[in-house]
C-alpha cells in the first residue's frame, strides 16, 4: 500500500467547490474519477481543506492510498491526461503511510486579488474582485497590522461558526500593488470559514476611504461579525500553498 501526496492547481470558476456534492461538478469528484480510471479502483482524497464554489487553487494538497505500482512521474502524467483543462497536477509524491494532508498541515497561505484599474479588465472578471474605486494600498497595509499574531477572529468568520474555537494565528499579512491588481496575502496556522474574504472586504472598505485605519482594530476586538466589512467574492481568492513541517 502506498500513500500518495498530490499538489493540485485548479480554476475554480466552473466547480461547486472542492468537496463532492451529488449532482454537482466538484474538484474532488473530478480528481477521484481520473484516479479511478488510472488505477481501476476508487480512492478517496483527503484534502488540506475545502475551497468554496468559485475559489481557485495554485497549491492545494491532498493524499490518497493506492496499490498502483506506477512510478510517480508516470502516475502523475496518467492522472493528468484524464483531467479536464481546469485542473492540473504540478507534483505527486510518495509519502509516509501516516501522512494526512488535512491533519498534518501547519500553515496555509491564501491570496486575495483585486482589480481596481480605471477601466476594468474583462479578462480578469473571473479571477479578481472588481473595485470601481482606486484603493489606497498603504492605508490597507497599515490597517492590516493589528491582525498579525494570535487573536480571536470571530469578527471575520461568516455563516458557519467554527466547532471549537475562532482563535487563529496569522504569521504573514501583506498588501501589495502589482500594476492594476492588488494582492492581499495571508498566511496562518488555520482559517475560519470565509476568514480571508472577510478580511479582504474589510480592507477594501478602508482602501476606499469608507473607514479609517483604526476601524480594523475595533472590528477585531468586537468579536462580532456584524460590525465587520462585507465578505468579498469567492472568485478573487486563491489557495497558494500548504506548509508541512
UniProtKB/TrEMBL annotation:
GO terms for molecular function: RNA binding; tRNA pseudouridine(38-40) synthase activity. It catalyses: uridine(38/39/40) in tRNA = pseudouridine(38/39/40) in tRNA. GO terms for biological process: tRNA pseudouridine synthesis. The active site is at residue 52. Pfam families: PseudoU_synth_1 (PF01416). The keyword Isomerase applies. SUPFAM superfamilies: Pseudouridine synthase. Residues 9-96, 143-245 form the Pseudouridine synthase I TruA alpha/beta domain. The keyword Isomerase applies. InterPro entries: PsdUridine_synth_cat_dom_sf, PsdUridine_synth_TruA, PsdUridine_synth_TruA_a/b_dom, PsdUridine_synth_TruA_C, TruA/RsuA/RluB/E/F_N. Coiled coil: none annotated. Its EC number is 5.4.99.12. Substrate binds at residue 110. Keywords: Isomerase, tRNA processing. HAMAP family: TruA. Belongs to the tRNA pseudouridine synthase TruA family. Formation of pseudouridine at positions 38, 39 and 40 in the anticodon stem and loop of transfer RNAs. This is tRNA pseudouridine synthase A. It comes from Tuwongella immobilis. The gene is truA.
Amino acid at each position: 500500500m502506498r500513500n500518495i501526496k498530490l499538489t493540485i492547481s485548479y480554476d475554480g470558476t466552473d466547480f461547486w467547490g472542492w468537496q463532492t456534492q451529488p449532482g454537482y461538478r466538484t474538484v474532488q469528484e473530478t480528481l477521484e474519477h481520473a484516479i479511478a480510471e488510472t488505477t481501476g479502483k476508487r480512492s478517496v482524497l483527503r484534502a488540506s481543506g475545502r475551497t468554496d464554489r468559485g475559489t481557485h487553487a495554485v497549491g492545494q494538497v491532498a493524499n490518497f492510498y493506492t496499490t498502483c505500482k506506477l512510478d510517480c512521474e508516470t502516475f502523475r502524467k496518467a492522472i493528468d491526461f484524464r483531467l479536464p483543462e481546469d485542473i492540473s497536477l504540478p507534483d505527486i509524491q510518495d509519502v509516509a503511510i501516516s501522512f494526512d494532508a488535512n491533519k498534518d498541515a501547519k500553515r496555509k497561505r491564501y491570496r486575495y486579488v483585486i482589480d481596481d484599474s480605471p477601466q476594468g479588465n474583462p479578462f480578469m472578471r473571473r479571477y479578481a474582485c472588481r473595485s470601481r474605486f482606486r484603493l489606497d494600498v498603504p492605508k490597507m497595509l497599515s490597517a492590516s497590522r493589528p491582525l498579525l499574531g494570535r487573536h480571536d477572529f470571530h469578527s471575520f468568520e461568516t455563516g458557519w461558526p467554527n466547532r471549537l474555537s475562532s482563535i487563529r494565528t496569522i504569521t504573514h499579512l501583506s498588501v501589495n500593488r502589482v500594476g492594476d491588481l492588488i494582492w492581499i496575502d495571508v498566511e496562518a496556522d488555520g482559517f475560519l470559514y470565509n476568514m480571508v474574504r472577510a478580511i479582504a472586504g474589510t480592507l477594501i472598505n478602508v482602501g476606499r476611504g469608507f473607514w479609517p485605519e483604526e476601524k480594523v482594530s475595533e472590528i477585531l476586538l468586537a468579536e462580532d461579525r456584524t460590525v465587520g466589512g462585507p465578505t468579498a467574492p469567492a472568485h478573487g481568492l486563491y489557495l497558494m500553498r500548504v506548509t508541512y513541517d
